[in-house]
Amino acid sequence: MTSEVYAADWVLPVVSPPIRAGAVVVDGDRVAWVGSLDELPERWQGVDARRRRGILTPGLVNAHTHLQYTGFDEVGAGAYDSFEDWSDAFGRVYDVVDPASWWPAALAGAREAVASGTTVFAEIVTDDEARGALGAVGAGGIEYLEAIGQFERAWAEGGRADYLAWLDAETAFRRGVSPHAAYSLDGSVIRELIEIARKRGLRLHSHLGESSVEAELYRHGDRRVLAAYGDLRDEFELVRTGGAGDTTGGYADSVGLLCETMHVAHAIYLDRDDRDLLLRRGTRVVLCPRSNAVIGLDEAPVAAYLREGHDIAVGTDSRASSPSLDLLADVRELHRIARSQGYGDADLSRRLVRAATLGGARAMGLDAGGYGVLAPGGPADLALFDVDVNGHDVEEALVLAGAGSCVLAVCAGAVLHGSA
Length: 420
Ligand SMILES: [Zn+2]
Hints:
Blueprint: E1 3-11, E2 19-27, E3 30-36, E4 51-58, E5 60-65, H1 73-76, H2 83-94, H3 102-114, E6 118-125, H4 133-137, E7 140-147, H5 152-167, E8 175-179, H6 187-200, E9 204-208, H7 214-220, H8 237-241, H9 248-254, E10 262-266, H10 272-281, E11 284-287, H11 289-295, H12 302-307, E12 313-314, H13 327-340, H14 348-363, E13 382-385, H15 394-401, E14 406-411, E15 414-417
Parallel strand pairs: 1-4, 5-6, 6-7, 7-8, 9-10, 10-11, 11-12
Antiparallel strand pairs: 1-2, 2-3, 4-13, 13-14, 14-15
This protein binds zinc ion.
Zinc ion is lined by residues 64, 66, 207, 265, 317.
C-alpha cells in the first residue's frame, strides 16, 4: 500500500489538543498514524515528509448544502427582507431552469467547496439530475433526497410512489431522506417519511425555524410562509384547520420530525423551550449565518445554543443565498455573532472548529465511521489551511483567518485540491 506523510506546522486532530510540527500518515484511504513529526515511526521515515506551512485538519463537514443551485449566484447576490421575499426571487429562477444544468452546477459546487477544505457534505438533492455529484468528484457525505410541497392529496395521487421509486433507485452513494420543512408537507406525509427512513436505516435532514412567520402557521394557520405555493396553499392541512395551536418545535415534534437521526438547518426562530425540546430529542442544529444574512433573517441564537449544551454543526447553504461555499467563512461569522451575543468563554474557537468537523459528522451519524476527526483507522480526509498561527491560539487562527486559505484537500486518500 502506498503511504503518504502529511506534515504541517500544526495538526488539529479535534478530539485531542493541537500538535505542533505534527504529521498524519495515510495508507490508502485510511489514516494510519497521527502525532508529532519528531516521533514518526521508523517504517515511514523513508517517505517524503516535508513540513508545510499552516494548519492540517480533518476534512471539513458542511452540514447543509444544495449544490444544484450553484448557478443561482445572482439570486444570492441580492438583498432581501424576509424568507418569503427571497423565496419569490428564488422561485422565479427555479421555474425556468433547464434541468440539464443541475448536474454541471452540482459538480461545480462540489469542486468549489472541496477547494475550500470540505470533504463531507449533507447535500439536499431536489432534482434527480443533480444526484451523484458528490461521488463523481470523489467527495463524501450523504445525499438527502428532498420531499417538498406534498399535501395529503398530492402525496396519495403519485407523490408517494414517485418519491419511493426515486429513493430506492440503485445508487453507489449514501442516501438520506429530507422532508423539506414542517410547513411544506402535511403532518401525515412527514410521519410517513420518518417511517420510510427508519425502515431503511437512513438519516434525516430538514429545515426548521428559518422564516420569521413560520411559527404563525403552526400556531393559527397563517399562510404567509407558504407564499411560494400560490393557490395551492389552501390544500395544506395547517391552513385548512387554522393551525395546530403549537410552537414551531412543539408542532415539529408532534409530527415526528424531532428525532435522533435528524438534523435541522437554520433553527433561528426557536425559543428556549423549543431549543430544549430539540436537545431532549437528540436533534442537532446546523447554523448557516451568511445565508441568513443574505435572506434578511435575524441572527440565530448562537450564544444560547453554545451555552445550553447543543453540539452544533455549520453549513453554507447554497449559492442562491450565500456568497461562497467556503465553510470557514461561516465559522468566522458564527464567532462574531456569538461574541456580539455575549458568549465570552475562551472555548469559543475550539467549539466552532469542532462544529465544522465532528459536529457535522455527528449530525449525519458519520462520527461512528471516524469522520470529523483525525485518528488512526479513520478515513483519510484532510485539509490544509495556509494560516500563520503567529502567537495566536491555533484554533482561533483557523476560525479567524482560515477562509480562503485552503491549499490542500484530501478525500479518502485522494488529493482533490492542491498537491500531495
Ligand atoms: Zn436549505
